[in-house]
Amino acid sequence: MSRLPSGSEASLEPVRYALRRRADTEASRLAEDARSESESILSTARAEAEEIRKTAERQGAEAAHTEAAGRSARIRRQARRTVLAQQESLRTELIRHVQQQVQELRSDPRYPRMLRILTERADSILGPMASVTESYKGGVTAAAGSRHLDFSLPALAEQALENHAGEVHRLWDAE
Predict the structure, then answer these.
(1) 131 pairs with which residues across the strands?
(2) What is the pTM assigned to this prediction?
(3) How many CB atoms are located within 10 Å of the residue 132 CB?
């Protein structure tokens, strides 16, 4: 490197100043561009993150709703099974109770009169030539040719239960 002649230092000062000023201006501009670009990138990233969060929130809510609906349906089905099982249990208990009460009729002092009424009813339906016999289950059975009647106590109890089934169902539906 060669040395500059004396006095050239002072004459180069305005050049140095201009170069420094240009470098400072360029550095400031580059810094501002970098800040602006980083703010833009950060803003875009925040917007994307917010969209991702909203999408995840919506999907989570939809999944929760679907899960809740499924759980609710399962609970309703289980509740219905429980109600039906309880109704069936009560119906079975009612049938057992009615059959037990019917068997107790045989020891009732009015039982012979009831047999006469059942016999008369069988005769009126099948005719006076019908063969009417007392059933071992209580009550009577009758036959005339190919026609048969079952007025046994269990059959009459079953018929009474069928006749009143609507009342039993209304009790269950009243809930």
Answers:
(1) 143
(2) 0.55
(3) 19
Classify 152 as helix, strand or coil.
strand
Cβ–Cβ < 8 Å for 137, 157: no
Query: Looking at this protein, which amino acid is placed at residue 165?
Result: A
Between these two residues, 9 and 146, which has the higher pLDDT value? 146
12 and 5 in contact (C-beta within 8 Å)?
no
Q: Is the pLDDT of residue 175 over 70?
A: no
DSSP per-residue letters across 54-82: HHHHHHHHHHHHHHHHHHHHHHHHHHHHH
Please say whether the beta carbons of 149 and 126 come within 8 A.
yes
Supply the DSSP symbol for 4.
P
Residue 174: pLDDT band by 50, 70, 90 thresholds?
low
Tokens standing for residue 97:
């109770």
Q: What is the mean pLDDT of the chain?
A: 87
- Under a CB-based contact definition with an 8 Å cutoff, are residues 147 and 126 in contact? yes
